[in-house]
């Protein structure tokens, strides 16, 4: 079985702690994505799983067996490298066959058959006699995948395999990889710095920062119920809006506006004073201001404010607006909001912005921990299904 | 100035247009250096095919005229050298192969595999490059003649091999010495090449289940071909042209096992002085194997240099 | 003034066998002063080659390249008053940040040292890297190196900026931030900019106009939304937009489009726009596919959910027609809160005003999406 257990795993390089006390349980057949910014320790963790680095302390178990002192050759794992690492002097066929040579229980003919089988699954059967330098990036990537699949290992390890591909190809391969993993039902640990890959492919996401595990949860949970500021900022594109401020009685006071907090939020906040208010761009409601008469500011509701549009990014299906406060048109945008593709705004427009109270997140400004996450009604917005 | 695609017709006007002083100066410089390097070579060839009188009377780089032309020098040199050619080749080729192969393996082990005390080992190799020939001559002679007389031990065995004579056993210690002496520099050369290879190749091999040796044999060795070309040419030239070790272990130009380098100084010398014609012919003949090697491996050499850069 | 004009610019290479490779074929572009134009297309489409011809790093085989009235074809790169940001940044590794940024000014202008120093400091202030002036490139992060590369171009105050995929070596998050910043910077500086990328998101969000290339040929030039809502052909429609537009091949039978697994009735108005084409491709963007709402009608079909990709704020749902081929899948975008799962059966609708129809053979667009008549929108969409 391919379940993985990491207990208190630590890796030090001299004085730098690359991985700090990481504990993680991965189920058999699960697709787990290790995600985080450069230098967060995700690749190091993967390499320790592969046996290419030895842990400084802590334990690694694959399928229940203790792996710390086992060489990569004996771990029954397969890996897809970022640069594919195809053997340049061998044909595609030989590249894929290489790993099979060490596997017992196959005759030579059976090995040949298996290579063709895998090549057909990946759609590269017609490339079998070519050398890597005659292939495109996408084709090379499939060969690298084939080399991993052919050995039928307990665990797949993937180190940013899509990062060298064109944007469009990347999107296609994402779906294909997911389908493949589903079919093959092999435990997969996938490393990336791209949160979109993490969100779309993972059964669960493990977010890392500076060697430490921040949160392990389903994509949905990481997005809607982040543990802390880091996860909230890292997951989600465009990034969540964060506004620093303090609590005064039952009001959140930021630099440019005040925001009354609901009872349940206040309950979670307790006695904390320094807070960070978070709201995702797609939850902000934007309405064109009918007048820019400042007297009309009184007509604003509790959760509304006036802002100016500084940058408009059209994506076609939606628009990302960069907004700043009228009295502080600095280079740092205060908020980003997402509007529907047909809802068009121009740079310089003044708009009325609503921050719905049921969609805010509140974080402790000192520790960064999430104190209150947005409400999401499990039943609301439920797409009607016909069974 | 608009760019026109090639039409095949010769455009004198544009040719003249491209001529400028800088270009002329550049070409003049090139021609000068060409001359600088080629004239000595040409002189040598000319001397080789001249009679003695012609050598004395004509300018060194002038071609021989009429009766001054002779192939006799070359014939004579060839007869004198034929035995030693054989000796040189059966000594240099195994020695080169040995030092290059071991150098490659050592570089692999020191660069692409991780283990403790690696750096210390590497330092030893680097130090080995700098040991001067002269410093080890006496101990070397003592070792091969007194402490471990391998040549004498192998003599009967070597004599029984077809085409070989007993005295050829004297070359075996020479081969071994050259291999040992050549390993450090070959290791260093290969190391820089292996450093430029992505580590992920070895890692992928490990994950595929291959042992370190198998990775060397199936993955690294095949990719090292360009580098092999380079190091082989370099080592062969070093070993083939080497004099000191050969002199120490084979002793004397009249020894039947003498390689070419030992015989060359004696050729053409007689009581009446040095016969330049013969000397030159001999020199060129001696250079032929190296020349052939360069021509054969030229492409590999260039590829290997490119990879290193 | 810095209007850059390409007039039927062509680039032909000769390959090893002596044959011709046409990398760029007769591209004509008029880039306005101060415009941010993005050259976008897949790998090998000729966008980098076109940029390099503008820079003077490649010669123009045929056609003319002009900056205002000055013909640039034979002019060496040093004399073009153009600054370039490379994908690999190409910073001088042995020079400090200050040295890197001063180099261009020292070599190509007669400015006194104090003025050079001042300009460098102004630029680093603008980019927020003033505290890095004395560091070497090897001591900088990827994002910082990128700013230095930008700064090196900005400080020369050129007529044109050329940028060759400058963001592709950055982390995803950093890339999104730099996108906004680059846009802002260009807006402030007002310098004509030509930007090359394979990422259509960068093209859409940053460009004043977008030029889509494929296989050396210009497919369409227009505002981002123009290319999005009114693509000229199948290629542009499929390239612009993420997730990609769904395409269904089929044929016209009377007033109905017969696709694989579904029949789609066309209104008279739509039918009129098709001309004589019989083989057609129907296109619809994922966000226009409505999932699961209780609708009945001829443009609603039974579908099965194959895969759901959660993005957080929305889901990309991969579906297949119940009556169709298993291999033919299409995507729809639903809100992030909806709980659709693989294996669910549901209905999908393709509203007629949202579909595109393309000629089955040539790929040309015959009918594009109808936009709600709104003058503000039309102003955005048309050039």
TrEMBL record, chain B:
UniProt record, GO biological process: transmembrane transport
Subcellular location(s) of the protein: Cell membrane; Membrane
Similarity section: Belongs to the binding-protein-dependent transport system permease family.
Source species: Haloferax lucentense (strain DSM 14919 / JCM 9276 / NCIMB 13854 / Aa 2.2) (Haloferax alicantei)
PANTHER family attached to this UniProt entry: ABC TRANSPORTER PERMEASE PROTEIN, GLUCOSE IMPORT SYSTEM PERMEASE PROTEIN GLCU
Pfam families the record matches: BPD_transp_1
One cellular component term from this protein's GO annotations in UniProt: plasma membrane
Keywords: Membrane, Transmembrane, Transmembrane helix, Transport
Protein name: Sugar ABC transporter permease
SUPFAM superfamilies: MetI-like (SSF161098)
């Amino acid at each position: 079985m391919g379940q993985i257990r990491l207990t208190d795993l630590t890796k030090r390089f001299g004085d730098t702690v690359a991985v700090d006390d990481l504990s993680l349980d991965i189920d058999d057949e699960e697709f787990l994505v290790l995600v985080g910014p450069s230098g967060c320790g995700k690749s190091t963790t993967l390499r320790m799983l592969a046996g290419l680095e030895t842990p400084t302390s802590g334990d690694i178990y694959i399928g229940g067996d203790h792996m710390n002192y086992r060489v990569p050759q004996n771990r029954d794992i397969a890996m897809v490298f970022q640069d594919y690492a195809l053997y340049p002097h061998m044909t595609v066929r030989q590249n894929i066959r290489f790993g099979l040579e060490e596997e017992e229980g196959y005759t030579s003919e059976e090995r040949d058959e298996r290579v063709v089988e895998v090549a057909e699954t990946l759609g590269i059967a017609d490339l079998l006699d070519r050398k890597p330098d005659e292939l495109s990036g996408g084709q090379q990537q499939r060969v690298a995948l084939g080399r991993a699949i052919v050995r039928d290992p307990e665990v797949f390890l993937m180190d940013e395999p899509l990062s060298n591909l064109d944007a469009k190809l990347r999107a296609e391969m994402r779906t294909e990889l997911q389908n493949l993993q589903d079919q093959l039902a092999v435990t997969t640990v996938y490393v990336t710095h791209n949160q979109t890959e993490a969100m779309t492919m993972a059964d669960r996401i493990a977010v890392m920062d500076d060697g430490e595990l921040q949160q392990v949860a389903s994509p949905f949970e990481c997005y809607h119920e982040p543990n802390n500021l880091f996860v909230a900022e890292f997951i989600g594109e465009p990034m969540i809006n964060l506004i620093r401020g303090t609590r005064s009685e039952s009001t959140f006071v930021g630099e440019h506006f005040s925001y009354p907090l609901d009872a349940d939020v206040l309950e979670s906040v307790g006695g904390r004073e320094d807070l960070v208010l978070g709201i995702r761009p797609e939850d902000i409601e934007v309405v064109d201001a009918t007048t820019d008469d400042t007297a009309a500011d009184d007509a604003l509701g509790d959760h509304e404010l006036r802002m100016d549009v500084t940058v408009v990014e059209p994506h076609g299906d939606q628009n990302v607006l960069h907004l700043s406060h009228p009295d502080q048109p600095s280079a740092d945008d205060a908020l980003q909001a997402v509007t529907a593709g047909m809802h068009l705004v121009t740079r310089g427009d003044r708009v009325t912005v609503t921050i719905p109270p049921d969609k805010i997140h509140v974080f402790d400004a000192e520790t960064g921990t999430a104190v209150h996450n947005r409400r999401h009604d499990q039943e609301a917005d439920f797409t009607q299904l016909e069974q | 100035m608009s760019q026109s695609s090639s039409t095949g017709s010769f455009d004198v006007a544009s040719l003249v247009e491209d001529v400028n002083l800088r270009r002329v100066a550049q070409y003049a410089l090139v021609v000068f250096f060409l001359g600088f390097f080629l004239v000595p070579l040409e002189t040598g060839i000319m001397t080789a095919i001249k009679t003695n009188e012609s050598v004395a009377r004509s300018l060194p780089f002038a071609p021989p005229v009429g009766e001054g032309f002779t192939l006799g020098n070359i014939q004579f040199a060839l007869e004198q050298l034929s035995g030693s050619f054989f000796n040189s080749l059966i000594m240099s080729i195994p020695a080169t192969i040995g030092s290059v192969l071991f150098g490659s393996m050592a570089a692999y082990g020191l660069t692409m595999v991780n283990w403790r005390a690696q750096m210390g080992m590497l330092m030893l190799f680097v130090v080995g490059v700098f040991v001067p020939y002269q410093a080890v001559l006496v101990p070397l002679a003592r070792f091969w003649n007194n402490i471990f007389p391998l040549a004498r031990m192998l003599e009967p065995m070597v004599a029984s091999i077809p085409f070989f004579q007993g005295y050829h056993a004297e070359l075996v210690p020479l081969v071994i010495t050259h291999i040992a002496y050549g390993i450090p520099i070959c290791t260093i050369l290969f190391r820089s090449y292996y450093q430029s290879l992505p580590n992920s190749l070895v890692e992928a091999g490990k994950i595929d289940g291959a042992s370190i040796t198998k990775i060397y044999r199936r993955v690294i060795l095949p990719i090292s071909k360009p580098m092999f070309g380079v190091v082989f040419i370099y080592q062969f030239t070093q070993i083939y042209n080497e004099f000191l070790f050969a002199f120490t272990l084979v002793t004397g130009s009249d020894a039947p096992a003498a390689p070419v380098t030992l015989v060359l100084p004696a050729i053409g010398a007689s009581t009446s002085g040095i016969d330049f014609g013969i000397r030159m012919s001999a020199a060129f003949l001696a250079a032929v194997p190296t020349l052939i090697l360069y021509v054969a491996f030229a492409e590999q050499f260039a590829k290997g240099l490119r990879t290193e850069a | 003034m810095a209007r850059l004009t390409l007039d039927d610019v062509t680039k032909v290479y000769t390959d090893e066998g002596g044959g011709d490779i046409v990398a760029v074929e007769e591209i004509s572009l008029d880039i306005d002063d101060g415009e941010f134009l993005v050259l976008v297309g897949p790998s090998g489409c000729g966008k980098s080659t076109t940029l390099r011809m503008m820079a003077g790093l490649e010669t123009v085989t045929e056609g003319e390249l002009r900056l205002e009235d000055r013909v640039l074809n034979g002019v060496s790169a040093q004399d073009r008053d153009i600054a370039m940001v490379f994908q690999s940044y190409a910073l001088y590794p042995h020079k400090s940040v200050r040295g890197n940024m001063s180099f261009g000014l020292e070599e190509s202008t007669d400015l006194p040292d104090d003025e050079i120093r001042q300009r460098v400091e102004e630029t680093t202030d603008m980019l927020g890297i003033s505290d890095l002036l004395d560091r070497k490139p090897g001591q900088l992060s990827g994002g910082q190196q990128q700013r230095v590369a930008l700064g090196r171009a900005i400080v020369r105050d050129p007529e044109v900026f050329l940028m060759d995929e400058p963001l592709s070596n950055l982390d995803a998050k950093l890339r999104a931030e730099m996108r906004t910043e680059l846009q802002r910077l260009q807006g402030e500086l007002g310098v004509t900019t030509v930007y090359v990328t394979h990422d259509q998101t960068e093209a859409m969000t940053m460009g004043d106009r977008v030029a889509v290339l494929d296989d050396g040929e210009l497919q369409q030039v227009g505002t981002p939304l123009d290319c999005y809502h009114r693509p000229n052909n199948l290629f542009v429609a499929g390239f612009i937009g993420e997730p990609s537009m769904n395409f269904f091949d089929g044929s016209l039978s009377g007033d109905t489009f017969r696709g694989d697994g579904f029949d789609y009735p066309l209104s008279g108005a739509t039918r009129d726009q098709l001309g004589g084409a019989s083989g057609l491709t129907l296109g619809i963007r994922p966000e226009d596919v409505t999932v699961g709402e209780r609708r009945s009608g001829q443009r609603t079909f039974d579908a099965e959910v194959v895969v759901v990709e959660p993005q957080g704020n929305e889901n990309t749902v991969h579906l297949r027609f119940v009556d169709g081929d298993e291999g033919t899948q299409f995507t729809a975008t639903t809100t992030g809160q909806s709980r659709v799962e693989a294996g669910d059966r549901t209905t999908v609708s393709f509203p007629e005003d949202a579909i595109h129809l393309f000629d089955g053979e040539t790929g040309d667009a015959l009918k594009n999406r109808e936009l709600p008549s709104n003058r503000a929108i039309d102003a955005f969409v048309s050039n």
